[in-house]
Amino acid sequence: MPLFNRVTIVGLGLMGGSLGMALKRRRLAKTVVGLSRTPATLRRAKRRGAIDVGTTDAAHAVRGADLVMLATPVDTIIPQARRLARHMKPGSILTDVGSTKIRIVAALERSMPTGVAFVGGHPLAGAEARGIEAADAHLYDGAICIVTPTPHTNRAALRRVEQLWRPLVGRVVRMSPREHDRALASTSHLPHVLAACLVRAARPRDLSTAAPSFREMTRLAKSDPDLWDDIFFTNQRLLLGAMDQFSRQWRALRAMLAGSRRAAFRRALAQAKRTRDAIQDR
Question: For 215, phi and psi rounded to 5 degrees?
């Protein structure tokens, strides 16, 4: 028995397309509707098994949906949500996969039409590639999905969103929007900035013989700049704090190396190893 009769996915790139495939693989929705501005994207999404029905008509896409998932860049989520919510039925739920949450939740949670609930969400999954051709039915397998309730969140809608994600990911975690953005500033947004810095710091003539460690650590630099620019600037203050914390650690290690404090340097590396060993890899 499907959890939802009709789910609409807005945005059929990597995240939205993968979600559609996963919903259909797990049979969590009777009908998956896709909304895109581009008919060719809808045709590819249907051909890849990400959606059952596709449309470029926003009102038609969300009318009758039990749940609408926004899988578009973070700077488009607020205006899109406000436009789409006007056409959603009472009792329906609007949620998202945005990588930042403070601004989105604050703007939307208390501005929905009567009977429409908003629940912030963010599955911690992704890849450097974009578009429906990069979609993968197993993208979310083993991932963590964070939902970001506040005292104003509709509890029944929150439980429904968690029910949607639990069969698709390894774990569903509740965090406040601020807790989410602070954590992701350090563990997601900062690593993307560091990857860009590493590439920029390397001498071009050395890149042809780059070691595997360099290639692994700079993989994130291959991500779409337009997408990540939006994420960085919607989490600007907390990302700056994470960058400052990194800078303090960098300066401390640099001082140990410059001062030939080998034992202290080794202890710092050992402490980092213990911390990293405690993190479970997918």
Answer: -65, -40
3-state secondary structure of 65: coil
| pLDDT number for residue 282 | 64
The residue-averaged pLDDT of 265-271 equals 97
Entry field: residues in the chain: 282
**Whether residue 228 sits in one domain with residue 102:** no
- Average pLDDT score over the chain: 96
Please work out, in degrees rounded to the nearest 5, the angle formed at the alpha carbon of residue 120 by the alpha carbons of 59 and 228.
90
What domain range is 37 assigned to? 4-174
Contact between 79 and 50 under an 8 Å Cβ cutoff? The reply is: no
Show the DSSP H helices in 166-209 as ranges: 177-184, 190-201
Residue 16 falls within a domain, yes or no? yes
Domain count along the chain: 2
Q: Give domain status of residue 110, yes or no.
A: yes
CATH number, residue 163: 3.40.50.720
Residue 8: phi and psi, rounded to 5, are -110, 130
Tens digits of residue pLDDT in 61-91: 999 999 999 999 999 999 999 999 999 999 9
Amino acid at 226: D
Q: Are 166 and 183 part of one and the same domain?
A: no
C-alpha to C-alpha distances, 282 to 32, 140, 143, 276, nearest whole angstrom? 28, 10, 7, 13
Locate 259 and state its tokens: 């001062």
Asked whether the whole model's pTM tops 0.90, one would answer yes
Is 109 a domain residue?
A: yes
Confidence tier at 246 by pLDDT (50, 70, 90): very high
Within a domain: 205: yes
Are residues 160 and 189 both part of a single domain? no
